[in-house]
Every structure is written in C-alpha cells, then in structure tokens.
TrEMBL record:
Lineage, opening ranks: Bacteria, Pseudomonadati, Pseudomonadota, Alphaproteobacteria, Hyphomicrobiales
UniProt xrefs under PANTHER family: 2-METHYLCITRATE DEHYDRATASE (PTHR16943:SF8), 2-METHYLCITRATE DEHYDRATASE-RELATED (PTHR16943)
Assigned protein family: Belongs to the PrpD family.
Domain (MmgE/PrpD N-terminal): residue spans on this chain: 8-240
Name under which the protein is recorded: MmgE/PrpD family protein
Residue ranges occupied by any MmgE/PrpD C-terminal domain in the UniProt entry: 264-433
Gene Ontology molecular function: any one: lyase activity
Amino acid sequence: MPDSYTVEHIARFAHRADGIAMPAEARDRLKRSLLDALGCAIGALGAGPVRAVRALVEDLGGAPLCTLIGGGRSSPDRAGLYNGCLVRYLDFMDNTARQGEVCHPADNTSAVLAAAEHADASGADFLTALAVSYQVQTRLLELPTMRAGVNYTTPLAFSVAAGAGRVLGLDEGRLAHALALAGVGAVSLATIQAEPVSNWKGLSSGEAAGRALHNTYLARNGITGTLGVFDGPLGLFQLVDARLDTDWEREKLDIGLQVSIKRHNAEFQSQTSVDLAIELRDAHALAGAAIERVIVEVADGAYEVLGGGKYGPKLDCRIKEQADHNLLYLVAVALLDGEVWPGQFAPERILRDDVQALLRKVVVGPDSSFTRRIPGEMPVRMTVQLADGRAITGEKTDYEGFHTRPLSWDQVRGKFDRLTTGKLDPALGRDIADAAQGIDSLAVRELTALLARVPAD
C-alpha cells in the first residue's frame, strides 16, 4: 500500500491553489473559455434532449439554492446536471488533448459555478477553482482512458470534485474523500461515443458533473470514500494498466495555455479536417455533384472515433449525435455548405440526399506519423478527386482556435453572439459577455443573476 494516495496529493494541490500564480495569459484564456461555455449553453436552450432533462429537474424538485440557465432554481447537484447538459449538448465547447485522448474541460463549468454560487464565492475564487478543475482533468488524460475503453467523463468526476471542493472550502482530508467518492463510481464506458451514438453522448458529461458535485457535498458532510481509487488494489491504475507520474507538489495552474476552442460545431479531432474541407471548397469552387471521392488522412484517434475505426462504421448517419462525431458527414457537409454550425445538424439537413450521397464518397484512414505530432499539432491531409479527372490535395497542421493559435476575445465574442442570436436580448448578451471577461472582479452571484434572466426557450 502507498504511504499516501493519489487523491490526497490532488487534494493538497487543490487546497494550496491560492498560493500558485496563474499566468496572466492562462487566466485570460480561461475567461474566454467561460464565455464560450456560456454561449454553447444558451445556444442549446430548446433542444429536445436538454428540455427533457429540464423537465426531470422540475418534476423532482430540489432546494432552490442555485440558478438554472434560462430561469428557475434548484439544488446545486441538479443545477450542475442541467446546466452541464446545456454546456455539452451542442458539442461546440473547448478541449484539451494528449496523444489518443481528448476531454472538454468546460464540462467542469456548471458544477463549479453551482458550488461557487451556493458558497457565495467571489468571481476570483470561482476562477481559481475552475482552473484547478481544468488542470486536474487534463493531467488525468495522461492515463489511458478512451484508449482503455473508459469514457472521458471519468477524469471529469475527479476534476469536478477538486474544483468544487476547493470553492466550498473543504479541508485537505475532506477534499481527498470528495475525490474518492466522486471517482470510484464514475468509471463509465467509452462505448458512449461508439455507434450507434445516442442522445447520451451529449448529456453524459452533465450527468457526471452533477453526480460528482453531489458526492462532493457528501464528503463535506463527513462521508468517507475509497482513498485507493487510483493506486489501491483493483483501482484505476490497475484497470487501465498505467500509472500517473504527475508531481502534484510542483503542479501549476497553466493548463489554460493548452486549451483549444472550437471554430466549427464538430468533434474536436475533426476541426482541422473541417477547416481544410472549407478552404478547398472555397479556393477551387468545388460543387458536390462534381466530387467523385474524398480521401482524408488523420491521426489514429480521429480515425478510431470518427472515421469508421473501432468505434464503429459511419455510413449510417441519422441524428445529430451521430453526425457531429462522424468525419464522413462533417467533411461532406463542410464541402457542400461551407460551414459547420448547429444548422448543419437539423434533422432535415442530415437526411438530405446531397450530403447522404457525398458522405459515402468520403474515405478516412489513419496516419500514425500524425498521431505523434499531437498535442502540438492536429494534422490532416485531404485529397478531393473530381469527375473531370483532377485531384486537389491539401494539408493543414492546425486551425484557428487551436491552442497554438487561440481565438481572440473578439472572435470568442463573435461566436457567443452568433450562438445566442434569437435566444436573448442583445443587451443581456453584452452584460453576460462583460461579466465573463471581468469575472475576477465580480461576485459569482452577479453572473448567475444574469444567467437567470435568459429566456428558457
């Protein structure tokens, strides 16, 4: 048995976060991710699956302690559930990556925000807690998760507990038990992302975040958890046949510098491919009817999840949750429409003959040399073969929004404005954007009061 457990080291890191200097650029990019997450959440209002979650929250009730985006209040864990489903549903928020692994650190936002609102925390304390969550979740990607058949909501449970426990003021001991409680029951299967993809792909992160927050409150009330969840007998290290080498005593709050924000409404590993498809379409005035074949070469992870590898064949594409995780569809619709935004996932667009025919002409294959260039790049090579015999080839290493080329505040604000158009009054949108940018000088409840004013649908 170890002298101390991994959850104790993570708890100590989270507890001492006030003493860790966050680089100014990392702080600024974290606030951009916050605004981006809120735009994704507001943009998802009215979607059928999240309306079903909202109906359940209302049916079951809950102490009205925390704000639901779109109005109303519920308990912290149910606010974490519902608001988390809103953030995740469009699949348009931020990402971090390691070779063969990706996660959405914005999945932490709803639960940490609910805990911060309940604690009446300052915006600065909330931002530090959110930075802790981002750091923990991304560091846990160094363990095989998706590669080992474990869904990335498993690291999310630990990171929510770390950030929420910190903002709730848990001491190191109870923080360690919060991590243990949240993580031990959170080992979910990567088959969530496999065909046939269902609504749960877009909701599981919200459920995991709400459940982890619930378990953090149990630890606050003195419930103990399995401290050996990582390194004990039958723990996570044994399950994935790997260990974590992170030195939590030296860990920083700098993951914000590695965060990418999506430019296109598509799975993260497809971003450069979608970008390149649009560039080739525009540069060569490509028409869908003239395309005979499209060959796309990507990293191993993108092929396995999106291109017809071990997560299943991609020719049957019928619903949004399938389409936004289907590189055949994403490349085809990008070549036809010149963009990939929520409108490209309307049922009538997915099922239209033009895109259904073209996606069957897209062939995706892996290139292991591309895999070795992750996370510093996200390479793709694409060849479009035309009916007149021409072949047009292009290659890209990344896209605007990738962590090496981050979106500016103006670009993030433009994305927020487009996602929220028709969802709220423009003046309220400006106030929310200003509050996200200035969160470290506000109280959290000033931001949540604005989110309560967003119309429900």
